[in-house]
Amino acid sequence: MTVDIKLQMRYWWKNAAQKWQTAKLLHKTKRFADCLFFAHLTIECLIKGLVILKTKNYAPYTHNLVILAGKAGLQTNNKIFDILKTTTTFNLTNRYPDDKFIFYKSIDKKYCDEWIKNIDQLRLWLIKKYQTKK
Question: Does the CA dihedral 20-89-62-57 come out positive or negative?
């Protein structure tokens, strides 16, 4: 089965844009933990598009941004690595209810503002990588 690279890239690019819009709306409505979750999804989608470009195959079923960045062949410095590592923790799909509750209670506006700024910088860096490889 051959992979339609352009179709897959459009899919991940469009999803990243939609997830980012959702993250911004959630931030505006003070749903900070959900905002960070959707910011994580944004980065995941962008990196998966780069994985497809590099491997010419479907993106793997993982939410770990560090693993995905490696598969995409991204050269990361310590700051980018740290942002990827922390942003991965914002993925809530596999958390137990108690873990989710603790996470939700721990996120305040200041923390969210700091991390949404970091993630936006990463997002813009990935978009540049994405556009140079198209």
Answer: positive
